Amino acid sequence: MISGRVLYTDSTHLKANANKGKARNEQRIVEPSQYIDALNQAINAERELNGKKP
Q: Domains in the chain: how many in total?
């Protein structure tokens, strides 16, 4: 979509309007423990919904 091409979805005509000039790459520091904690929380929430032990 960034190249400005036309995209068709569900028989609806949409024109891509992304601006390449505004794109920027930035590095963010994310601790692995934060990621693992978030995954564990998501897993436990899903297990509770299905009636399983955390």
A: 1
